[in-house]
Amino acid sequence: MFDFSYQLKLLPDKPGVYLMKNSLGEIIYVGKAKILKNRVRQYFQSSKNHSEKVKAMVKNIAEFEYIVTDSEIEALILECNLIKKYKPRYNILLKDDKHYPFIKITTNEDFPRIFVTRIIAKDGAKYFGPYVDVSAVYETMELIKKIFPIRTCKRVIKEKGDITRPCLNYHINLCTAPCAGFIDKEDYGKTVAEITNILNGKDSMVLRQLKVDMEKASEELEFEKAAALRDKIAALEKIREKQKIMTGSFENEDFINLDSDEMDSCVNIFFLRNGKIVGREHFMLENTSGENKAVIISQFIKEFYGGTAFVPKTIYVPEILETELLEQWLTMKRGSKVELRIPQKGDKKNLLEMVKKNATATLDQFKLKLMQDKALHKETLKDLAHILNLEDLPHRIEAYDISNIQGVDSVGSMIVFENGKAKNSDYRRFKIKTVKGANDYDSMREILTRRFKRGLDEVKAIEEKNLALSAGKFCVFPDLILMDGGLGQINIALEVLRNLNIDIPVCGMVKDDKHNTRGLIYNNEELYLKKSSNVIHFITRIQDEVHRFAISYHRSLRDKRILHSILEDIPNIGAKRRKELLKKFGSIENIKKASYKELVDTDSIDTKAANSILDYFNKASSKND
């Protein structure tokens, strides 16, 4: 380990964030401290109280740097941002981090719309959620549209504004056509209020009124109207079935608990909205051996709520560290007071215990599946080694593919399987730099040369500094290389390896006329694989994955190009503004849906630019309508 005694003496007695780096300059851990000097020194003192994860990290620290902040809350905010940016390997990272969908009602408009969104903003609209079950959200939306005729178009409709011809939705009774002046703002608002009550869980009144109207229609022999009301009642009851009343309050609350074994932890979180469970989620946190439960929960809260748009009013946990600091940070994110509570008895305590039981069950399932998969993967690798006559099991396998569409944007991809399991953290993508046009052989030669030459350079640097191989990205070489192609691709790979004096077996994965994986080519011979064997299923999985990874990269490049070209057509939107819009909203669809307030809240977007964006998409929408 490096001698940091001089740098440690220079550490200030102030709050801030520290970044640990390995020999390649990669950030492997980000932490925050109330007093930087005290916290950072602890890593380089006696390791007997350190967890196994911290011990492993300290061995790989080659340098560190720090950023001084004015307060501990500033340090916490900066820590969350840096973890999100760099995704350091020794921080707790939620692989399933996602922005959950909300149902949005644009109550800031004269004639509100309702739609699903993953972006939440303080724009005067009402948001309901988040919802974990995405399919249930869209089904609920369809049911609401079936019950209530509310508009779905993106037009800007003002009361007593310009009158236009109603669209098809009006003629099939899915909209009351405020665009044509067929309904006023007050009557339309009553429909919106009923939808709001349903999403708030206050649907009993709506249901009672529908039943009264149905009975009245039936008594007046208006059977067609009664049947329509009956269908609406059935749809509304289906919405109610999706949620279960769990508490007497109608607050927004999250319940977090976990269970751990000697190696890993499972954190479960239940989402209660307006007193109803709207979903739950679990996160497997691997290699948490020796970590304190309160530490894991505190780190989980920072990681989870740092990446979600919604923060509830109350979060219940079994134990936690830095309660006041986390409450302060969560309150800033929510815009109103947030409390972290440890329930001692009653319904809250019981529900928290239920969350733990779910975490225990999920952890047990995870371990059982892990054991089953491990045994299956080992047998599969044994069979593969036998077929290829390899002396050792191919614990690490790398597969390569080239993708281009009509000769444009050639890209290369590398995926990794370790011990029979995909290792996504080691996947790599390559933009082709030296080859023009659709030349798969030269493109493959380029990416393989770059990959293995970089690996040799890393090995040399690591040996000179006496570090573990885990300090690099490319220095760990595979036991077997699989090429998505035949003899041509295999020979390119062998040529590159030979030039670099590297000896690794290379196979080609070949497909039949129906594009199904047929077998392997090795040592200029095609090897027959039984269609029902574990090996053919394993090779098919690798071939499909490397192809998917290559295609997804190609599509992302193409989509960026399309996004860029569309935004170029909008007046007053230059390169800097295009970049800021894509950075904030992520897609053209989200920019289309953005309100004026959301747009002007974007860096570098002023009033003139926001109006240009709204005018552009409104005109495009009118043309489509």
UniProtKB/TrEMBL annotation:
Gene3D superfamilies xrefs: 5' to 3' exonuclease, C-terminal subdomain, GIY-YIG endonuclease, UVR domain, UvrC, RNAse H endonuclease domain
PROSITE patterns, alphabetized: GIY_YIG, UVR, UVRC
UVR domain sequence ranges: 204-239
Entries under Pfam families matching the protein: GIY-YIG, HHH_2, UVR, UvrC_RNaseH, UvrC_RNaseH_dom
Positions of the UvrC family homology region profile domain: 266-497
Protein localization: Cytoplasm
Keyword DNA repair: yes
GO aspect biological process, one term: SOS response
HAMAP family: UvrC (MF_00203)
Protein name in UniProt: UvrABC system protein C
Organism expressing this protein natively: Clostridium pasteurianum BC1
Lineage: Bacteria, Bacillati, Bacillota, Clostridia, Eubacteriales
